[in-house]
């Protein structure tokens, strides 16, 4: 971290700074440099809400429109990655995520790759550690 502070910000890393606080400050300063201070503040608040607070209900998530009201976990995951993130994930990749417990529908882990998800009424589909979508 000390090297990045020196190279990117032109200042020394405070010796008593907690590593997570140092990373957040570095990110905030870089976003402020290339965008605005207000956008940097918003990005930090979104990070805190989404990752530190794990509050996906109020997070700014991409909207996923499934091709059917009921899909199996694998088909839903493949569609969501492609539609919302522009990523082509294989059925095998999504299956592994499901078996590992990464995929969650409405806050519940879906470890059975053959499970059918009912998208009527919407909800939040968490695909992996960093990606989630709002079904709508």
Brief synopsis:
The chain has 136 residues and is of the alpha+beta class.
Protein traits:
136 residues, alpha+beta, Structural Genomics Hypothetical 15.5 Kd Protein In mrcA-pckA Intergenic Region, Chain A, 2 domains, five-stranded mixed beta sheet, two-stranded antiparallel sheet, 5 helices, 15% strand
Please explain how this structure is put together:
- With 136 residues, the chain is an alpha+beta fold.
- It has two domains: 51 residues, no CATH class; 73 residues, RNA-binding S4 domain (Structural Genomics Hypothetical 15.5 Kd Protein In mrcA-pckA Intergenic Region, Chain A), CATH 3.10.290.
- The chain has five helices and seven strands, in the order αααββααβββββ.
- The strands form two sheets. A five-stranded mixed beta sheet has the order 1-7-6-3-4, covered by helices on one side. A two-stranded antiparallel sheet has the order 2-5.
- Helix 2 runs antiparallel to helix 3 and helix 4 packs across helix 5.
- The longest helix is centred in the N-terminal third of the chain and has 16 residues.
- The chain is elongated and about 55 Å long.
- It starts with a helix and ends with a strand.
- The mean pLDDT is 90.
């Amino acid at each position: 971290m000390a090297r990045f502070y020196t190279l990117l910000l032109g200042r020394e890393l405070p010796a008593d700074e907690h590593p997570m606080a140092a990373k957040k400050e570095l990110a905030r300063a870089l976003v402020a440099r290339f965008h605005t201070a207000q956008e940097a503040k918003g990005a930090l608040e979104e990070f805190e809400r989404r990752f530190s607070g794990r509050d996906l209900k109020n997070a700014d998530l991409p909207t996923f429109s499934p091709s059917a009201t009921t899909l199996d976990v694998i088909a839903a995951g493949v569609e969501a990655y492609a539609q919302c993130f522009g990523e082509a994930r294989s059925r095998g990749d999504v299956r592994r995520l499901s078996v590992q417990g990464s995929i969650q529908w409405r806050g519940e882990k879906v470890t059975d790759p053959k499970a059918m998800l009912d998208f009527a009424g919407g909800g939040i589909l968490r695909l992996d550690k960093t990606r989630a979508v709002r079904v709508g």
